Amino acid sequence: MSTSRFPLTELADLPPDLRERIEPIVSKSGFVPNIFRALGHRPNELRAFLDYHDVLMDQPGPLSKAERELVVVASSGANRCIYCVVAHGAILRVRSKDSHLSDHVATNPAGANLDGRQRAIVDLSLALTRTPELFADSDMARARSAGLTDVEIWDIGAITAFFAASNRLAHLTAVAPNDEFYSMGR
C-alpha cells in the first residue's frame, strides 16, 4: 500500500524550526506521524497546520484533552478519514483510558455509550460535520441545555472545522496511518 500520493519528507529534511517542533513528538511516541511527513514538502503550510492544531488541541481551556480528541474522532469518523480516525482514536484511547470509546464513536456514534456531556459534544460536532449548512440556533440550544458553555461550543466548532480541513488533506494525500497508532492505548 502506498503511504501517500505526494512526496513524503523525512524529519532530517525539514527546516530546523519544524524539526524542533516535531522531535518532541518523535521522542515521546517513537515515530514521525505520516501526516507531518506528507505535509512536510510544503513547510509553510505545515507550520500553519501545527500552529492552529496546537492552539486548538494543546492550550488550556474548558474542554479536557480527551474531550478534544472525542470531537476529532467523531468528526473524522463522519468524514470517513481513516488517517485521523486511527491516529486520533489512538490518542483518545490513551487520554480517556477507554480502549473501546474511539472505535464506537468513529463507527456508530449514535449507539456509543456516552455520558450526557460526551453525547452533547459528539452531537454538536456531528451537526457541524454532516450538514453544516443546516446548523441552526436549535443546535446551539441543545448544546447549551446539555450544559455546554459558549466557550466550549466555540472550541468544539473550531476543532470540528480544523479537522474538516485536515480530513480533506488526508483524503487528498491518501496518507496511511502509521502502524504504531493501531496498538496504542489497547
UniProtKB/TrEMBL annotation:
This is Carboxymuconolactone decarboxylase-like domain-containing protein. NCBIfam families: ahpD_dom (TIGR00778), peroxid_rel (TIGR01926). InterPro entries: AhpD-like, AhpD_core, CMD-like, Uncharacterised_peroxidase-rel. Residues 45-93 form the Carboxymuconolactone decarboxylase-like domain. SUPFAM superfamilies: AhpD-like (SSF69118). It comes from Gordonia terrae NBRC 100016.
